[in-house]
Amino acid sequence: MNKNQINTHNTEAFRDKYMKSETELKDLLKVDFGKFFVVKVEDLIRNIKLPVPPSRATSHTLIYVTEGETTMTIGSKSYKIFEDEAPLKKHYRDS
User: Fold this and answer.
1) Contact at 8 Å (CB) between 10 and 34?
2) What is the C-alpha to C-alpha distance for residues 28 and 33, in angstroms, rounded to an integer?
3) Are 41 and 63 in contact (CB under 8 A)?
4) What is the residue-averaged pLDDT of the chain?
5) Are 51 and 17 spatial neighbours (Cβ–Cβ below 8 Å)?
6) Considering the entire predicted model, what is its pTM?
7) In 3-state terms, the chain is what percent helix, strand and coil (to 5)?
């Protein structure tokens, strides 16, 4: 898949396409969620329509691991994230 085949989504478009529309999701994403929101991954993941294809975002994502560890894939690279870590990755911008 080349970069021209990967869609770019803003927060609202991603939510509309890949999130289940349930009351719980509306409770997680409060007013102005498109600007900034904090939510537990375990609460959010239950509302995602999997699988989500590779995509770009017009926003930033910060994941802070409070317990245990996880693996996050960015592009073609996978990163192991451990307790008390918050990896930062510059997001893609169209030129």
Assistant:
1) yes
2) 9
3) yes
4) 76
5) no
6) 0.53
7) 25, 25, 55
Report the distance separating Cα 1 and Cα 7, nearest Å: 11
What type of residue sits at position 3? Answer: K
In whole angstroms, give the CA distance from residue 20 to residue 28. Answer: 12
Q: What distance lies between CA 61 and its chain's CA centroid?
A: 6
Q: Which residue has the higher pLDDT, 92 or 69?
A: 69
Task: Count CB atoms within 10 A of the CB of residue 3.
Answer: 10
Exposure string of 50-86, with b = 16+ CB inside 10 Å and e = fewer, is: eeeeeeeebeeeeeebeeeeeeeeeeeeeeebeeeee
At residue 94 the predicted structure's pLDDT band, cuts being 50, 70 and 90, is: very low
